[in-house]
């Protein structure tokens, strides 16, 4: 990256300039009439604003990424018209939920035209994602464009190279067109920073779309993009997918190519970031993972494990072809009881699986709190030196996601710690290793209960103890962090929506912890009315194909229930 | 581990007691007549001492592990007689080169008898290593036995569990019978500690067998074990294999199961230890790696990548079946020129490969010194806190491997450093990542020169700039550390022996570095006369099967040259 220094201007001036430049990238003819603040649900704005043609609505409302890819491959829809449709819808979404950080539709349309010409000339697609518009979280540098990642100090940082994933997406035939908002430091389950401000949940703008890939989840749930790429160190793909009714997948940390991304806590390799998709359909998750693996990312990213896509694993060949599987179910992690709609989503999933001939057994909570504690100790081991190194402009560190928060009011899980030594970090790595062994042994031991001769084929659990919460109300992402500590792949599948008529608030007087009480007090069915609820499907480390294959089994069971 | 405290006795007394207990495990009837110190080459002692029967000599002299396994599987040789033969020969070796730390032949013979009974009853072997005696570096705990790893403070530490690799070796049918010596701290290319003293090179006892798996290399080169398991963080399998004329293999760091081992710098995961075999034949390397992978070690060790053995990769299916390959050759790493016999071994390998129809192109040195620098900074980042935590008895830290060294005379690469913070360690991880990317791009770029349409199939390079050196003379293991920093698998294949008639000392007046001059000055053909010389075959990260398949091509070319 080369820094084009902004020298003497204040960070506020730099931010104002950046916002202005972003604004100028919105074609004036794509500006919509203002939507009043009182309209909290903005999902129908693309239909009602009058900007999209019927055909553009048909394209962008296509619920299955595979169908999009097929129509593109057959030239039923050209890449230019698909790119135009999603670009317009992305711009519409941005005007109501503030989800974009970089807009480069001109490049995208030029690229789409090249793809159309390629298809016409060769009679075949350029790659498995030919013509598919793909949005990117603001961590994936593209040559010639800025990547600010929500830091004022990074305004003007123009990338000299594409991130490896960007190179591979282009080789796969994707059309990149926008990048999306993140929280400052990335280490939050919401999306707010001093440069671009706050991203809102299209289901209810008083709620957060989650984070840190919250620009993506807001955008995709409005069908402003069919598929986006996020990153997840503690839930940053899965929480926003759950909050916005999407499919989201966090692979194991070294399966997808990370080289060349910008990141928080860069060089922290103990519990690292994983890259994965958020999208409108499970077919999109599979197209992305298979498409990238088939391009042999380990030849370009030194941190990617050379493990080719396994069609056998994906088709559950050694798991009875996906018939009569056995699932574990974890209703809670033992310290914070999920809200009623979360438990209902688990129950519906369990019932659907049993109705489809599968077995579901209880997963007993064991050492989950230790998984959280070790992750937090590792991530905070630099004593915030990484964050501070990005705040050189005088821009303040954001301590709370509450709108107009008292800057000194810091949630417990964000309180800075004293820096550790390298030796102390090594001791944490040893703890992590012992915890991973305990989990692995526990998983293998389920073979005695499954009746299949195998351990459980996957574990079903909450993504969070709540659905999308009001801005500033997210807590530590315990249900997702567990699987980062253990480096297990986790897939989010949407199940239902909060229904105040059935998801009534139970009376509880005994609590498992202070956190349990706080989370209980947050629940009011009217606040969460109508927002989506997903479940998380977890598998063994680096068995991405198994999780996706099992995910299709779960999804099919839910859709036919 | 439970510590059986030795309370008030001094460390010297504890060491004396440990040595005495070790001595009592040698059956008196297996004691041989003393070999005079003047006899520096002791390779023929097993033949001349009169202790082994002709059949025991035939068994232990078997040059190919596959042949041993076949004869065991057919019950031509019983597990008990094979175990007896290698046990006797190990005890003989120990008496002349001091290679053992734990002796448990009673257990081994009982186990061998069980294996014989199993084969008789079932008509089939228990596993792929049925009846094979396997020795272990003193890092692999076995339930009920001590593991001291050369630290006085660890005397009396009795393991409560088998390391995962021990469990899998037993499941594979192996017979474990001895553990072998290491240097204090493990971070040396020689083998000497305060508990067990110094291990000697059977080719010439005035020379080191290398380290840190030097007990293994000394033992196996005397055929006191057909196959042993070592570990390698900077050359600790490859240097001793090279110094003792063995095949030795360092896989990538997360391919073989490490859970449950004891280690130096435990929790240091930036450039971690890799586990692998040292053995008398390439077939032994392959039997070990394939045998362990086929037992799915990732189900028991959370640090092991679930990547099954690939027969396609091993058979070089996508590499023209092993015909007309293209190799890179690295004559030196740019700062230290190897001694004449090392360069001759490379030349002979190149000639043999070309004679067999392969192409060999030059690998240009680029950033090798940086690979070494970052590794050293990472390993020393704890400011020696890990070492010091093991020296609680008052036992001194060994600063030099020179016999009767001045304890204050510390080689440059061992000088302790100030401890780093976790944040500083993260910065080193970033450096490492950038270096791995530079290497990967360099490797891929060779595709333009190979003529095969692929990058080079493997790289041939020195294992060290010298053959086995006099005790105390090893330097930093630059030629091996490179591949630990890059996490590339490296296979050592023996090529030749030092011949003073051809390996004459060249005149050099210009040196690449001070280290280059020091290493040049070390060379005197008479010192190294007759000791073995190997080469190193390096491949891409986690492509162990490719390196082994290519290794067979190289080995066959050398044997038929």
Can you walk through the features of this model?
Chains A, B: Keywords: Hydrolase. Chains A, B: It is an enzyme of class 3 (hydrolase). Chains A, B: It catalyses: a monocarboxylic acid amide + H2O = a monocarboxylate + NH4(+). The structure is a homodimer of 561-residue chains. With 561 residues, chain A is of the alpha/beta class. Chain A folds into 2 domains: 269 residues, Amidase signature (AS) enzymes (Alpha-Beta Complex), CATH 3.90.1300; 206 residues, Amidase signature (AS) domain (Amidase signature (AS) enzymes). Chain A has 20 helices and 15 strands. Chain A has an 11-stranded mixed β-sheet with strand order 2-5-3-8-10-9-14-15-13-11-12, with helices on both faces. In chain A, strand 6 and strand 7 form a beta hairpin. In chain A, helix 3 crosses helix 5. Chain A is globular and about 60 Å long.
Helix content of chain A: 25-40%
From the 3D structure, determine the CATH topology of the largest domain in chain A.
Answer: Amidase signature (AS) enzymes
The end-to-end span of chain A amounts to 51 Å
Helical element count of chain A? 20
Count the beta strands of chain A. 15
CATH superfamily of the largest domain in chain A: Amidase signature (AS) domain
Helix/sheet category of chain A: alpha/beta
**Oligomer state of the chains in this structure:** homodimer
Question: What's the gyration radius of chain A in Å?
Answer: 22 Å
Measured by residues with Cβ under 8 Å of the partner chain's Cβ, the largest interface is:
A-B, 44 and 44 residues
Shape of chain A: globular
- Global mean pLDDT of chain A: 96
Strand order of the largest sheet of chain A: 2-5-3-8-10-9-14-15-13-11-12
Largest sheet of chain A: 11 strands, mixed
User: What is the highest CATH level, the class of the largest domain in chain A?
Assistant: Alpha Beta
The percentage of residues in β strands of chain A lies in 5-15%
Tell me the domain tally of chain A: 2
Please give the CATH architecture of the largest domain in chain A. Answer: Alpha-Beta Complex
């Amino acid at each position: 990256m080369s820094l084009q220094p902004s020298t003497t201007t204040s960070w506020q001036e730099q931010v104002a300039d950046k916002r202005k430049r972003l604004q100028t990238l919105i074609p004036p003819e794509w500006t919509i009439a203002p939507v009043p603040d009182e309209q909290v649900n903005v999902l129908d704005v693309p239909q009602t604003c009058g900007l999209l043609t019927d055909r553009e609505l048909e394209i962008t409302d296509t619920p299955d990424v595979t169908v999009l890819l097929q129509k593109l491959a057959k030239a039923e829809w050209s890449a230019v018209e698909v790119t135009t449709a999603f670009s317009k819808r992305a711009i519409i979404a941005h005007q109501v939920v503030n989800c974009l950080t970089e807009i480069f539709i001109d490049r995208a349309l030029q690229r789409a035209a090249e793809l159309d010409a390629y298809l016409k000339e060769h009679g075949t697609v350029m790659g498995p994602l030919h013509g598919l518009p793909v949005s990117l979280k603001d961590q994936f540098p593209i040559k010639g464009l800025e990547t600010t990642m929500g830091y004022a100090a990074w305004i003007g940082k123009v990338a000299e190279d594409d991130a490896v994933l960007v190179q591979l997406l282009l080789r796969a035939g994707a059309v990149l067109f926008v990048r999306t908002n993140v929280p400052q430091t990335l280490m939050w389950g919401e999306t707010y920073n001093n440069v671009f401000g706050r991203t809102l949940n299209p289901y209810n703008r008083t709620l957060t779309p989650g984070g840190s890939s919250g620009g993506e989840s807001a955008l995709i749930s409005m069908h402003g993009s069919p598929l986006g790429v996020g990153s997840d160190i503690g839930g940053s793909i899965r929480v926003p997918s759950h909050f916005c009714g999407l499919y989201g997948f966090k692979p194991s940390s070294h399966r997808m190519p990370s080289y060349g991304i910008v990141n928080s806590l860069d060089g922290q390799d103990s519990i690292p970031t994983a890259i994965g998709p958020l999208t409108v359909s499970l077919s999109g998750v599979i197209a992305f993972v298979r498409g990238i693996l088939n391009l042999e990312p380990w030849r370009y990213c030194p941190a990617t494990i050379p493990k080719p896509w396994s069609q056998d694993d994906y088709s559950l060949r050694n798991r009875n072809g996906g018939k009569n599987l056995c699932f574990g179910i974890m209703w809670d992690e033992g310290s914070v009881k999920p809200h009623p709609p979360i438990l209902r989503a688990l129950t519906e999933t369990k019932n659907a699986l049993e109705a489809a001939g599968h077995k579901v057994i209880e997963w007993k909570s064991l050492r989950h709190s230790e998984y959280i504690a070790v992750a937090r100790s590792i991530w905070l081991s630099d004593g915030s030196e990484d964050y501070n190194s990005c705040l050189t402009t005088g821009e303040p560190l954001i301590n709370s996601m509450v709108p107009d928060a008292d800057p000194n009011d810091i949630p417990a899980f964000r309180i800075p710690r004293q820096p550790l030594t390298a030796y102390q970090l090594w001791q944490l790595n040893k703890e992590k290793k012992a915890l991973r062994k305990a989990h692995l042994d526990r998983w293998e031991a389920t073979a005695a209960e499954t009746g299949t001769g195998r351990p459980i084929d996957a574990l079903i659990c909450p993504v969070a103890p709540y659905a999308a919460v009001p801005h500033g109300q997210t807590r530590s992402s315990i249900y997702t962090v567990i699987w980062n500590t253990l480096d297990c792949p986790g897939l989010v599948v949407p199940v239902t929506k909060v229904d105040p008529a059935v998801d009534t608030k139970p009376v509880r007087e005994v609590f498992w912890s202070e956190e349990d009480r706080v989370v209980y007090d947050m629940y009011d069915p009217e606040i969460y009315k109508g927002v989506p609820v997903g479940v998380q499907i977890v598998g063994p480390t680096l068995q991405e194909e198994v999780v996706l294959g099992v995910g299709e089994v779960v999804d099919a069971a839910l859709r036919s229930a």
